[in-house]
Write a structure and sequence with these properties.
Mean pLDDT: 86
Helix content: 25-40%
Number of strands: 5
Number of helices: 4
Radius of gyration: 15 Å
CATH class: Alpha Beta
Shape: globular
Oligomer: single chain
C-alpha cells in the first residue's frame, strides 16, 4: 500500500483486549511533534482505561490489524446533544491515505443517527489533525474557546 492510496477499513468498538494495541498507537502518535508529550506505554494504557469508563473507543482495522483509533465522549456537556472527539491517531505507516478523515466522517454519522446535534473537538493548530478537522467542516466555534493557564 502506497502513500496517497485510498484504503477500505473497518471501524468497530474496541474491547478491553484491544487497549494495549491502542495504547501503543496513542503513545507513539502524541509523542511526535507538535505535541512532543512524554508518553510511555503504561501511561497511555492507563489513559485508555480511564477513557473506557466514560467514552466510546473505536478501533480502526485494516488488513486484520488495528492501525488507529477514535475516542468519542458522548457525555460531553449535555449528553445526547453534544459529543466530543477526545482523540484520534493512526499509525505512522498508514497515514496519508484518508483513513482518519473517513473514520471521522463515519463516526460523525454514527452519532448523528443516535440523535446527537453537535460534534466537538480540540486540536493543536500546528498539527496535521487541525487541517483534517477543517477539511471535514469542523471549524472554530464562535461561542466557545479553549482556555489555558500555565501553572508555574
Amino acid at each position: 500500500m502506497k502513500r496517497g492510496e485510498s484504503v477500505d477499513f473497518e471501524l468497530k468498538k474496541a474491547r478491553r483486549w484491544d487497549y494495549s494495541k491502542i495504547a501503543k498507537i496513542y503513545g507513539e502518535g502524541f509523542s511526535e511533534p507538535p505535541y512532543n508529550e512524554p508518553w510511555t506505554f503504561n501511561v497511555a494504557l492507563k489513559k485508555i482505561k480511564l477513557f473506557s469508563r466514560y467514552c466510546d473507543i473505536w478501533k480502526i482495522i485494516y488488513d486484520k490489524k488495528i492501525v488507529g483509533f477514535v475516542i468519542v465522549n458522548p457525555n460531553y456537556w449535555y449528553p445526547g446533544r453534544f459529543c466530543f472527539g477526545e482523540d484520534i491517531a493512526v499509525k505512522k505507516e498508514y497515514r496519508g491515505r484518508g483513513i482518519a478523515k473517513k473514520a471521522l466522517l463515519r463516526i460523525m454519522d454514527v452519532y448523528k443517527k443516535k440523535g446527537f446535534k453537535y460534534f466537538y473537538g480540540t486540536s493543536n493548530n500546528q498539527s496535521k489533525a487541525y487541517k483534517l478537522w477543517r477539511s471535514i467542516g469542523i471549524k472554530e466555534n464562535k461561542y466557545d474557546r479553549t482556555i489555558c493557564k500555565k501553572l508555574k
